Amino acid sequence: MEVLRDQNWLLTVGTFLPMVGVLVMLFVPKSEEETHKGIALVTALATLGVGIYTLTQFDYDNAGTLQFFADAEWIKVISSNYTIGLDGMSLPLYILSMIVTVLVMVYSWNHIPSPGNPKAFLILMLILQTGMAGTFVAQDLILFFVFFEVVLLPMYFMIGVWGGEQRQYASLKFFLYTMFGSALMLVAFIALFFKVRGALPEGVEASFSIPMLTEYGGLLGRSAQIWIFAGMFIGFAVKVPMFPFHTWLPDAHTQAPTQGSVILAAILLKLGTYGFVRIAIPVLPEAAKEWAPWIGLLAVIGIIYGAFGCLAQTDMKRLIAFSSVAHMGFVMLGISTLTPMGFNAALFGMVAHGLITGMLFFVAGSVKERYHTLEIARLGGMLKQLPRLGWILGFAAMASLGLPGLAGFWGEFPAILAAYSPAEGLPVETFRTFMVIAALGTVFAAAYLLWLFQRTAFGEPKPEFSGSGHDSHGHDSPGHDSPGHDSHGHDSPGHDSPGHDSPGHDDLHDVTTHEWIAWTPFLVAILVFGVYPQLMFEIFDPAVEVALRAFGG
Amino acid sequence: MPTAETTRAAAHSAGWFLENAWIIPIVPAVAFALIIFFGKRLPMKGSELGVASMVASLVLSAGAAWQWMNRVDDASSGAVKEVARIARAEGGQSASFVGPVVREWTWWQSGGLEFGIGQHIDGLAVTLLLVVAFISTLVQIYSLEYLRGDRRYTHFFAALTLFSAGMLSMVLAPNMVQLILGWEIMGLCSFMLIGHWWEDQANARAALKAFFTVRVGDVGLLVGTGILFFSANAWTQANLGVSGFNISGISAWALSGEAGKSALTWGAVALFVACIGKSGQFPLHTWLPDAMAGPTPVSSLLHSSTMVVAGVFLVARLYPVFWEGLGITENSVNFIVVIGGVTIVIAALLAFVQHDIKKVLAYSTVSQLGYMMMGLGAGAWLPAVFHIFTHAFFKACLFLSAGSVSHSGSHHSFDMKKDMGGLAKKMPITATAWIVSTLALAGVFPLAGFFSKDEIIDNVGHNGYQVFMIIGLSGAFLTAAYMTRATYLTFFGEARGAAAGVHSADVHSADVHSADVHSADVHSADEGHDAHGSHDAHGSHDAHDSHAAHGPHESPKLITIPLVILAVLAIFAGLANATPFGSDWERFKKYVEPSPAFVALDDTIATGPGEAISLVGAEYGEGEEKAGCAYEVPEPGTACYFPAVSHAKFKWSKGLLSLAIVAAGLVSSWFFCVQYYTRRNRRLVGLTERNVVLRGGYKLLWNKYYLDALYEKVIVRVVAHPMARGAYWINQNVLDGTVNATGRISRRIAGWVYRNIDQRVVDGAVNGSGAAAQGAGGALRPVQSGKVNQYGALLFAAAAIGALVLVIINT
User: Fold this and answer.
1) How many angstroms separate the CA atoms of A204 and A212, rounded?
2) CB atoms < 10 A from the CB of B396, how many?
3) Which chain B residue lies closest to A342 (C-alpha atoms)?
4) Is A25:A122 a contact under the CB 8 Å cutoff?
5) Which of A135, A275, B79, B634 could form a disulfide with B638 if both were Cys (CB 3.0 to 4.6 A apart)?
6) What is the distance between the alpha carbons of residues B115 and B248, in angstroms, rounded to a whole number?
7) What is the 3-state secondary structure (H, E, C) of A130-192?
8) In this structure, what are the phi and psi dihedrals at residue B116, rounded to the nearest 5 degrees?
9) Residues of B with CB below 8 A from A460's CB?
């Protein structure tokens, strides 16, 4: 398999640079909070710098070839090597992870959630960054698995320590559920290795290398492929999340601090779908064809079911969480068609969803910070009191429902189209039915998003928040989250304990400078990629063609 | 039999305006961005940017139109350039195919497939560009005065400008994806503009309803595009080098004879579903009247002359698909013509019971859109497109007049019964504009509507759709009648309420139930209906308090000048295609209707980035009318882009019949109005209360056939509440329940294993061994009693046993 090996130190540096920052931070005492923030931000920016350099050095004419390829001996005993590389499919996601980390760091400057301790919080974020970037560059199954798991622990702590009221339950559920899937995935990986080793032609050495497995995976018998795919499917499907394995998501998202939700939505969910397009489908084409209708079915169920779930929500963050299930349904539908159009749509949808839903969670976090509640019934008239925040919410909502001209459209529309004509061997009528159902899903998407926008942004502010006097803290009725878990907690020593912030007019300031800095790249990207999607499609397309070679292109 | 003689085309000599028409939507798009970011700081709050961008678009569109007309003229006159002349073998009549000016840049690619963003300029595009740019300009000028002092003045102009950008980009779209882009942007702007005064929840709800209803129809747009794309792509790639999204490509494929019938039919049906939503056809028309909640300029631009014709435009643009897919020439009934016909009648009937002047106009718009659809569905392509053109002028004029009345005559109320009447004397310009436009709408010779609407009716009958011709004629009667009623209530009779100078507080409240003379129980069913939109006073009210003292008066120039311009056009626009006067007067047909000629394929230059495409015509000869494209399969190497539609010959007998019907409508309605409203004729007043049949009919109309109740109370409620709750219940209790149960059961099992196996069995064994050891020790302890006798006995016993054993062993 052809690879490009120039500058192959680049990816290692890009992946592990955050760990350098972690090391430095470990030696700085916990109390020097500003220093920690500085170091973390500098590290994230440096990582992003490496990422941008990678962007410039990437050979776009060869976007289908693995670039910056490195292959070093690692664990010889199990034939697992340190193999990394980047191609058109992983490049945007790799860069996106770095950008999101930087922006979340900027946002965190004033928003370390209670109980504080920026040292721990930011260290975990940097470890998370390494895990995310590593997953996207890993070209060896064991290495992939390691990075895949590395992201679990920081997220567990981020939710479990800095999260909302039910954080213990949410974080534990997230961790165990995902781990359960990963365990099966590991079994599948190992089984794959052994089976391929048995089927290899003379002279070819067996290893966990993904390029090698992609080339020879098709040699396996059909039923072996199907079982191995099943294991991988469970692992990835929990992560995506696909119906019915999605129930960890609403709780994780709702209880996580804003930064955690943004990273979770923007990148972590993509690890699952990425696993499908990188590993499961290219390596096991026969199984992919068998499984594709089922994946498509679960995908469209997810679209509709996610939409219904959204309509039933009373909490804004939970609504956005369910919308992730629906969006991922479109991505998985595109993947299940096993066509270049579907894959391209899915990859674009991944990036678009990351930008859009990340933005929505940022907005939700800001709403929580100002109103101290996310209950939709208690919100209203945001356009009057916080017009800029309201407009951003409107923009993000329009992007999320797939308005052409904004990024979300290019993830949904080609996916729906692709379902009309799936790959050879797939049941056409079934997929066309999926297409119609998915098109209906866009109507529901409009419904829940516009309903959310109408309830929260239009109209008059509720009496609770519109008065000029302070509402006393007695307003925190039992249904209200106790302020201790808001992400608005400030960490400067001179500040009052969070319990002193009274809701009401005082906190209702519009978008701050920090927030603008953190959000503008998202907003610009959503618009730019919406208007000119070719920017990303020309990167994805060659790599997708390579990945789908086994399917007749 | 077509012969192979072709004329080679030269590229790039189409003219600057034609080749750069893609700039036309970009100007307002840029203006939108500028207004959003800088508008508030400008002296006129951003409106100057909006108006300027519209004027620029208008100039560019006019230039493009001019050059297009030259292009067509050159083709027929014989100057070669880049269009071809096709000579008929016999008969000597020449018809030329005028190639559209197409330019595309790659916008999206995947797996070898790509489509672009750019322009496709032909007669239809040029017409719509002109109409949109022109009406947008006038409406923006009008809004300068109408919305003066509005709290969101800048945003209004931003949204209005973005809307124009969206529609302009849709109109010149060369492929379906760009069309969808423009379509959806228009929908977004419609949402923003209807809900412009969103402080009032009713307006926000109306905006949502509009967006949502159209979205439901848009499912058809996505599905239809998919069907057509995948069915046409192979053919279009092979023959024309373009993707299956390309509009010319799809049209040619549809007429090639190689297109699958079911793909065509399903594609056409799916796309038409989208048109039903966007163009307010039955049964998805319910959003249009509610959209009147928006400011009047919005109603006059989006919801009468431009956005709502997008569906008609789509059918006209992809006409070959509908022609073939729905068998327009083969049958005497099809999906489109039925929907169109039904829409005409039901909307016209609803216009009779409205109190709100804008709602009368809204239903009139729905009805006229029905005419356009019915025309298209019956093969009357040109009359329908011409009706888009003329209708835009007089309908926009009617809406702007209504706005003028509300602005200066009825103190921001739109309730005819409560606050209008006798305004003709006080507002002469507005009244004249209104009356002229009404007569044009009704179809009175020689005003514009006569030449367009009557042509539709005529051609519908000519093409074999007799039933629908009768529906069209009935619709003409109804149109004349309800418009007369509205005219009478507004401008004649005695002044009531605000028109009489009564400045009542009620006028400004959000609750606008006009107390009707009829029964109150009919009213109670109306609770939710008219709450939104009988007036749009909130914003502009503050600045106009000084008017209260004056009573009704004519509006300022910024309002009346657009009215006059549009009224003049309402009078004369029909002459652009005055069929009764002979074919020399049929300018519109000449420049807009595409030619049904065969076009040589091998001379087609495929589009590349920024390249202009030129199509050349192949010579073909035919004498009869019903021949050519769509009646013959094109010879190999040629393609068809438009079916050979037929045109009815105008006869004054038909014309006079329809004029008589219109006159009957006008006169009978006037008579009725005078009798009922002014003279209060006792036989008429309270008639619907006394007569059961009439009462039932009235109730049905008042409740809009209960469709809204069906949609909102049944369908939406069922989905939004039970199904959503049900799904969520399943999520929390079944799915998550399984997860949680797994957790709980695991812990139970773990506990059980711990208690019973670990603690009892395994640990029990450990403890048991200890207990056994202890027990054994305890059992053996009595041996150590300390009694010498016992030790002696034991010793003796042991010795005896030992001796016995020795003896036994040695034997």
Assistant:
1) 9
2) 29
3) B110
4) yes
5) B634
6) 13
7) HHHHHHHHECEHHHHHHHHHHCHHHHHHHHHHHCCCCHHHHHHHHHHHHHHHHHHHHHHHHHH
8) -125, 180
9) 199
Strands (E), A79-147: 80-86
Give which of B694, B39, B5 is closest to B352, Cα–Cα.
B694
Sign of CA dihedral A86, A88, A90, A93: positive
Q: Is the dihedral of CA B730, B732, B733, B739 positive or negative?
A: positive
Token pair in block for residue A477: 């009725």
The CA distance from A446 to A307, in Å, is 9
Q: What is the mean pLDDT of residues A272-280?
A: 93
Q: Which residue of A has its CA nearest to B223?
A: A436
Nearest to B204 among A176, A177, A459 (CB): A459
Given its phi and psi angles, is residue A305 left (phi above 0), alpha (psi -120 to 50 degrees) or beta? Answer: alpha
Averaged confidence pLDDT in chain A: 86
Strands A67-75 and A80-86: antiparallel
User: CA A351, CA A530: separation in Å to the nearest integer?
Assistant: 11
The mean predicted confidence, pLDDT, of chain B is 81
Q: Which residues contact B640 (CB under 8 A, 6 or more apart)?
A: B252, B255, B256, B320, B596, B597, B598, B599, B628, B629, B630, B634
Find chain A residues with C-beta within 8 A of B218's C-beta. Answer: 442-443
Cβ-Cβ contacts under 8 Å between A and B: the total is 142
Per-residue exposure over A490-528, b if at least 16 CB sit within 10 Å of its own CB, e if not:
bbeeeeeebeebbbbbeebeebeeebeebbeebbebbbe
Contact across the interface for A420 and B229, Cβ inside 8 Å: yes
pLDDT on residue A109? 87
Q: Which residues of A touch B728 (CB under 8 A)?
A: 308-309, 312-313
Task: Report CB contact under 8 Å: B229, A443.
Answer: no
Q: What is the pLDDT of residue B576?
A: 87
- pTM (2 d.p.): 0.82
Is there a contact between B212 and A447 if contact means CB atoms under 8 Å apart? yes
pLDDT (average), residues B713-720: 76
CB contact under 8 A, A450 and B107: no
Beta bridge partners, A81, equal: A73
ipTM, interface predicted TM-score of the complex? 0.80
What burial class does residue B294 get, using C-beta atoms within 10 Å of its C-beta: 0-12 exposed, 13-18 middle, 19+ buried? buried
Query: Phi-psi bin for B509: left (phi > 0), alpha (psi -120 to 50), beta?
Result: beta
- For chain B, what are the domain ranges? 707-763+786-810
pLDDT > 50? residue B281? yes
Average pLDDT of the segment spanning B656-672: 90
Dist CA A171 CA B715 (whole Å): 38
Residue among B109, B198, B199 whose CB faces A534 most closely: B109
What are the respective helix, strand and coil percentages of chain A, to the nearest 5?
70, 5, 25
pLDDT digit string (tens) for A474-494?
333 333 333 333 333 333 333
Quickly tell me which residue has 């009646």 as its tokens: B631
* Helix axis angle, B247-254 to B176-194, nearest 10°: 120
Query: Smallest Cβ distance to A416: which of B185, B204, B222?
Result: B222
In angstroms, rounded to a whole number, what is the distance separating the alpha carbons of residues B26 and B161? 11
From residue A440, give the alpha-carbon distance in Å to each of A307, A434, A437, B86, B703: 10, 10, 5, 47, 28
* Token representation of residue B311: 């569906």
Burial of B149 (0-12, 13-18, 19+ CB in 10 A): exposed
The SS3 of residue B102 is strand
CA B360/CA B483 separation, integer angstroms: 8
